[in-house]
Amino acid sequence: MSGDINRPAVVILSQTHQALAQRIAAHCGGEVYGFRGRVHQADRFFDDVRTGLVTLFKEKRPLVAIMASGALIRLLADSLEDKLNEPPVLAVAEDGSAVVPLLGGHHGANDLAREIALALDGFAAITTAGDLRFGVALDQPPSGWVLANPQDAKSVMASLLNGEMVRLEGDLAPDADWLQNSALPFSNKGSVRLIVSRDPVQGDGQTLVFHRRDLILGIGCERGVEVEEVAGLAAQTLREANLPQSAVACVTSIDLKADEAAILALAEHWQVPARFFAAEKLEAETPRLQNPSDIVFAEVGCHGVAEGAALAAVGPAGDLVVPKQKSKRATVAVARADKSVDGAGVGRSRGHLSVVGIGPGSQDWRSPEVSHLVAAADDLVGYSLYLDLLEDLANGKKRHDFDLGKEEDRVRHAMELAGEGRNVALVCSGDAGIYAMATLVFELLQDGGLSDGARRISIQVSPGISALQAAAARAGAPLGHDFCTISLSDLLTPWPVIQTRVRTAAEGDFVIAFYNPVSRRRRTQLAYAKDVLLAHRPADTPVILATNLGRQGETVRIVPLCDLHIDDVDMLTVVIVGSSDSRTVATGDGRKWVYTPRGYAAKDGTKIGSVA
């Protein structure tokens, strides 16, 4: 169901609201989501209103619904948990006259409401007290700044709304123009304090402490160091230097450590990016190092990792404020930039590869997780047909198209892209782990031949509806008991091995799903399998021939095993042969179905081995 996770989802329940939804989507870069059956024109559709809205909400999509506020609240009520993690949720009046931000006011909902209201010549019903009266959300400072004690924001705001005055203090107060330009009631005698400082300050119910994110933590460590050692050294270093942890914009190291568990765990715990630099970049910082080491140079190609990484991140205008500090197996250093740092914009990330199965191709048979991973990716790699099946989900992504048969080139390219620090989705049809690319990813990892960066990427495999599942669902329930899959392609598996597997599966009376049953040059393997199976199960055993599942031109046929003709099968067909106990049943509409009972029948007709 997902589109681009950063684009607002403009939801409509009636075709009469389509024009308004298009205006909103065009203005805010959104996508129109329509309730199928009542809406005929939309970018995407959903079949159940509650499920559709909840799915978008849980995916953290900005949500703009043209419907009554009360209805929207009731539909999402059971999904509300932590307001700090809620996406923007807005209700828009059916005539566009009012835009009401219901959730996520400090996560962009208020600004989005103002933007939409301006476009519609309507009214943004902002109800967040701080925004209304003072023009600022103290619990959500702008990018580059952080509130050190968010737990005190509620009491401070209550005091301000009750008429208390506020003092602005701290060495960085002159740089906090977002506070200076607000409508807060400033007074030198104010009882409420807003402290903007480089130093750690204890906040309280009448004091909020803001820091600028301008510190970079550089880390060097031995392979396999415990996270407790790195985290302890980092916290101790900041504490002894009187530096606030919340001012740290990112943790950095050499690219050889892009997969170091302790560094990644520390970044995740502190909720900051982990970024990495090549040895050549760190070596360029040697003139600014306070503790250059020839030993380190001999090992990794630069004279300092912790100090070098911190300095590389802050740039030439930044300074080293804490030189290298050591524990038994780790080192850390701290540098400060002359302004706030976007931690995600320095160095490179570890790089991530999502190996996704998109099922047969239609969005209805694609999992939300797969859609989310594709939407989050920078690059899409795959066979051209599979990328085309993504339709608008691929918009804005860099495509890397490969021809059929270039599997290793495809996977290697995806891994090398991720090794450059990119977020890459390797797109497979069906399930990525069933006769698809996930296996090749791990083969390449084991066999070598990849760059160092590609070997250190993070990997996620996300399942999809396999061809055998799709075929079984279309035909009924042929996989209701033990089954197996066999590929009849001898490109990677010797034909004698395939023959053994066919005979064994036939003797074991498994339901068998045959992948790659034929090709232009390979016409005899399926005929061999038919002959073997006829020696072990009845001639009228049902066989399912499923072609183009979930796509245009889909056909599903059911024939008896004795009437299976090789010329009726092509490369896009999945063949499922029932066991000796598989049966067919017809429904009143004339439809014929195949199923395999959950338990076998004894000689007297009673069921044995039934599975609950």
Judged by helices, strands and strand pairing, the structural class is alpha/beta
Do you know the CATH architecture of the largest domain? Answer: 2-Layer Sandwich
Unreliable spans are: 608-612
Rg over CA atoms, rounded to whole Å, is 30 Å
Q: CATH top level of the largest domain?
A: Alpha Beta
CATH names the topology of the largest domain as Methyltransferase, Cobalt-precorrin-4 Transmethylase, Domain 2
Give the strand order, joined by hyphens, for the main sheet: 3-2-1-4-5-6-7
Helix percent band:
25-40%
Mean of all residue-level pLDDT scores: 90
Distinct helical segment count: 20
What does the main sheet amount to? 7 strands, mixed
Between the first and last Cα atoms, what is the distance in angstroms?
Answer: 33 Å
Strand content: 15-25%
Task: Write down the domain tally.
Answer: 5
What shape does the CA trace take? flat
CATH superfamily of the largest domain: Tetrapyrrole methylase, C-terminal domain
Q: How many E strands? A: 31
Protein architecture, described:
The chain has 612 residues and is of the alpha/beta class. It folds into five domains: 119 residues, Rossmann fold; 68 residues, no CATH class; 131 residues, Nucleotidyltransferase, domain 5; 113 residues, Tetrapyrrole methylase, N-terminal domain (Cobalt-precorrin-4 Transmethylase, domain 1); 134 residues, Methyltransferase, Cobalt-precorrin-4 Transmethylase, Domain 2. It has 20 helices and 31 strands. The strands form seven sheets. Strands 3-2-1-4-5-6-7 form a seven-stranded mixed beta sheet, sandwiched between helices. Helix 15 crosses helix 16 and helix 19 runs parallel beside helix 20. The protein is flat and about 95 Å long.
